[in-house]
Amino acid sequence: MNQPVVKAFFDQETNTFSYVVSDPVSQQCAIIDSVLNYDAASATTNTTSADEIIAYIHQNSLSVAWILETHVHADHMTASQYLKQQVGGVVAMSEKIAIVQDTFTAIYHIEPKHFNSTRSFDYLFKDGEHFKIGELQAYNIPTPGHTPACLSYVIGDAVFVGDTLFMPDYGTARCDFPKGSAETLYDSVQKLYALDDQTRVFLCHDYLPEGRDHFVYETSIAEQKQHNIHIHAGTEKADFVQMRNQRDATLAMPKLILPSIQINMYAGHFPEPETNGICYLKIPFNFFKAKA
After folding, report:
1. For residue 51, which phi and psi values (nearest 5 degrees)?
2. Which residues contact 80 (CB under 8 A, 6 or more apart)?
3. Which of 100, 145, 146 lies closest to 263, judged by CA?
4. Closest CA to 251 of 291, 218, 211, 195
5. CA distance 175 to 251
6. What is the largest CA-CA distance in the chain?
7. Predicted local confidence at residue 287, as pLDDT
8. SS3 for 232-291, per residue?
9. What is the rounded CA–CA span in Å between residue 143 and residue 162?
């Protein structure tokens, strides 16, 4: 079986890793968890991070088959629509996106027609669905808990886990967003730990814990099972849930959650311009109370 070529791209502003995963035989590829750069003070976007991906794709004569999202990100906006316009590809994620859309459309009090695509995503994966990137065999593992629509993508000998796991010295994703669940996240991690120990694990984020001075994006199932500080092979579910819930109670909201989710849950589509030609985002004022 052909193994993927994995190229990582890092956006330090949001601590996000994006990936181009390519088949060395057919030169087809998938883009995973792209970033649209966003300046919150001016509410403006730019495509610096996405353009780095596009340059790599052109330099290596790759053909984009898929633009994949592991989940609806709360810490950055996706560049999926810009990438699709520039290099093509099918924008896809879990069919459970409907849960996220229903939940947050109610919170933001917006109608889907407020955005320029009622369908939003080009393709929605069923749980466990198989697909191909050129000659590469791939499938998804549903890994909810952080959000209800999280997917991990297994491509050859690699798995792209989104926010489900971080580096072993940093632990696991938070579970305190609407419809999140520490109990569910524990079960999801067990699915990942059932993969071959040598499976390469690629992360969506890395943060620098005390004692480490460089960013890392790759680990392995064996390393996670042995050394993850939140959920190693011997961790009991009740202990994990207690730790995760106590920890989440102390965390501040991600800085870009309010603008990001309403864009990301519609596959990166912007709201329709109003009569003055300007697009507007909504902010639910005093809905999410700051934690003490």
Report:
1. -65, -30
2. 31, 34, 67, 69, 91, 267, 268
3. 100
4. 291
5. 11
6. 59
7. 86
8. CCCCCHHHHHHHHHHHHCCCCCCCCHHHHHHHHCCCCCCECCCCCCCCCCCCCCCCCCCC
9. 9
* Digit-coded pLDDT (tens) for 36-61: 999 999 999 999 999 999 999 999 99
Distance, CA of 144 to CA of 158 (rounded, Å)? 19
Domain ranges of the chain: 5-260
- 90-134: pLDDT as tens digits: 999 999 999 999 999 899 998 766 655 456 899 999 999 999 999
Per-residue confidence (pLDDT) for residue 286, from 0 to 100: 87
By CB atoms closer than 10 A (0-12, 13-18, 19+), residue 287 is exposed
62 sits in which H/E element: none
**pLDDT grade for 159, boundaries at 50, 70 and 90:** very high
- Domain 5-260 fold: Metallo-beta-lactamase; Chain A (3.60.15)
Return the amino acid letter for 5: V
CA nearest to 32, candidates 138, 166, 191, 179: 138
Neighbours of 290 (CB within 10 A): 7
SS3 42: coil
What is the number of alpha carbons within 13 Å of residue 155 lying toward its C-beta?
29
